[in-house]
Amino acid sequence: MKYVDVVIDNKSNSTDSFFTYKCEDDSVKVGSKVYVPFARSKNPREGYVVAVKDDASDIDEKVLDKLRSVESVDSEVSLTEEMVRSALWMRGRYLCRYIDAIRCFTPAGSAAVRREKQNSLAGERGYAEPVEALTDEQEEAVRQIDEAIEGRKNERFLIHGVTGSGKTEIYIRAARKALDEGRGVIILVPEISLTGQIIERFLGNFGEDSVAVLHSKLSAGERYDQWKKIREGDTRIVIGARSAAFAPVENLGLMVVDEEHESTYKSDFTPKYDTVEVAIKRLQDKDSNGVLILGSATPSVVTYSRAKEGIYRLIELTKRYNEVSLPKTEIVDMRGEMKEGNRSVISRRLADEMKRQLDAGKQVMLFLNRRGYSTFVSCRECGYVAKCPTCGLSLTYHKGRASGKGSSGKLVCHYCGHEEAAPDKCPECGSEYVRYFGSGTEKIEETIRKLFPENTVDRLDLDSVKKKGELKKKLKSFEKGGTDILIGTQLIAKGLDFKNVGLVGIISADVTLNIPDFRSPERAFQLITQAAGRAGRGSDEGLVIIQTYSPEHYAVQMAAEHDYAHFYEAEDKFRKFMMYPPYSDIFQIMFTSEKPEAALAGAEKWHRRIGELLPEEDRGNLFTPQEAYMSKIRDTYRYSLVIKCPKGKRHQYSRVVYKVRAEETEEARRKKQDYIAVVDINPYSFT
Asked: What is the pLDDT of residue 195?
């Protein structure tokens, strides 16, 4: 007889604990999925074993007499001890429930289609780009990384390499070294759209039997198949977006986080984890002792700061692999265009250069991080603005859908999905002076088709790639020259490698700058730099034209000059003065309720209690609750409470917040709460 501590798959905060059971099955170990009797439920509940004890010496006799037994074990699903340890760490790090953290590591779940495993990569073609010789900078990077992998050292590298400097080739060589050492590999990319080209490279180098893919677009059955393939050791390389960080790879020797600066690596669902932190935890586990590689042309300020401190080993790649110079950049002041009578979203300079490049047989990419046709609809008579009835946010006008299906001429909420017909008359005053303002990718597409009727034009955004396979189809068409002009949102701004792009036009560099967030200059710099990096990746130098109403802003200026060093210095000084990350951790607690007064009352209650528990000298870091920037979503009202935690005090502040949450959980057993509180540490958005 042995005894096991089990985390029950249950949503309630009141059961967020370990439950001890008797167990007679010798096969049960840490990580086993078991079925146990629980509370008054007639059916056994799923749970995961987090500890196994050979005796009951630490269990009170009265409790021991009442212990129930494990009923059965799921022989198909189990976690490794490393995965369990990482999940338990996540619970303390992100103040989530045990089961929320454990679910990150499990396959699609009991609802998954369990069948004979399929190979989702069957039929996919890979290509191994012949690399005759590495640059001196690449050679040095590979040498340092290989040494760490071979020595089984838990080391962390930041590769700060300009766009086109050959970071992917370094990843491939590091992966080959890890495989040679008998280790497993996880390669992470920020967007599903970026998996295509990197998968092709890895398939070409390692073959389809060695590679598995994990991302949210797979069906439940496909996810389960891939999970089992990895767990059973049938493949040792995993490629995917954020969730692939939890792949059940044993003997994990290498994790690569490509484009590490991207906000998509921060989960916006519970648990609100940071992928890089999870990677660090998994690799430093005693069963892993692996190597982490972070790669970016525009590292986040926080990451670069850690490299400066020696937490990461910094590797600089300052030249493109093909020795072609970084693209030339020009800034067009759109205020001057307006004064000269050009009210088009396309400047005359950009239009002229597009014609020149297209005539020379080059392709053009146009970037605007705003989808739809017009950004808002307003009545010029009474000032009415069309807003979402459940979110209170301005609706975006969509003139049509690229797929030919769905609504045409509708107003859409990009947060809750609400749609309604676009009005011919003002619903408030009846005026016919209803006008459409702002421009999205759909309007840019229409404008470009009129300007260049002889050229093939395509659009790539979330609206145009709803069909499965549509994204890959559009990218392949552009890669093979079937599309002359590609218009898109940030989906096209990063990671993609096309040799014939002579010109990149950034339609409005101001979109990101105007977000009410301390990171907005950083995001603007990153998006401009990344979008610009799509130009001139072949044998000829490219050109980038940046259209902006803020040409003097330092983020725009330094991005145009490819000057990351001075941008970092400016941002670091600002962050230090304002005590923003990396000089603090920011706790955001979001309170939501169907009643605004309930959400506010919850925020005020937490504010009062946290203030009582914090040391007096730290109470100035606790800010008064405020309406969230997006104060209402899907008929749910939102209030935000923010705490600035000075560097080095995260554990202390976490204990305070956890204590308040525990007190509330206990109180909720007596009286049901009419609001929900969710903790997010270092959120990437304060909306």
From this structure: 67
